[in-house]
Automatic annotation (TrEMBL):
Keyword DNA-binding: no
Sample GO molecular function, one term: acyltransferase activity, transferring groups other than amino-acyl groups
SUPFAM superfamilies: Acyl-CoA N-acyltransferases (Nat)
Record's protein name: GCN5-related N-acetyltransferase
Gene3D superfamilies associated with the record: 3.40.630.30
Pfam family, one: Acetyltransf_1
Domain spans labelled N-acetyltransferase: 7-152
InterPro entries according to UniProt: Acyl_CoA_acyltransferase, GNAT_dom, YpeA/RimI_acetyltransf
Species name: Lachnoclostridium phytofermentans (strain ATCC 700394 / DSM 18823 / ISDg)
Lineage: Bacteria, Bacillati, Bacillota, Clostridia, Lachnospirales
Superkingdom, taxonomy of origin: Bacteria
Amino acid sequence: MLSNRKMNLTEFDEMMKLTFELIKSHSDIKDSEQVDWKGQVHDLLPDGLESEGNYFYTFFDETDSIVGYAWCVDKEENLRLIAYIGVKKEYQRKGYGLEIMRTVCDYAKQDGINKMVLGVEKNNLPAYQLYLKEGFNVEGEEDIRYIMMKEL
């Protein structure tokens, strides 16, 4: 069973590195291309990790090793976006993504949220299958990803 706490800045930087490794593995971005994620994130989070309506979690295993991260964002009164869930490569395929997903959905429900939404790359089959298993349904489609929603 995983434990979690509010993310700190060092962990946020690690989460962003993990995010862009995932993006590169599922897209045409080359290692030589630079992504100005710090500039983009500053626009989304003017108050950093304290930006209103944003929830950042770091998840740990029983040895206190970081397993993964989650970032959720309130979009409407009763709707929360799962902006990111990531599990470090060495911990993948062990059920941790599912546990993180369930935890952030439980937190949202405790906060009075009744719908969760997320986007998943069309070619990220393991994540897509996980979300279907957890009751998310495809609500829309964009060029490279599906928009999925779940009633809590």
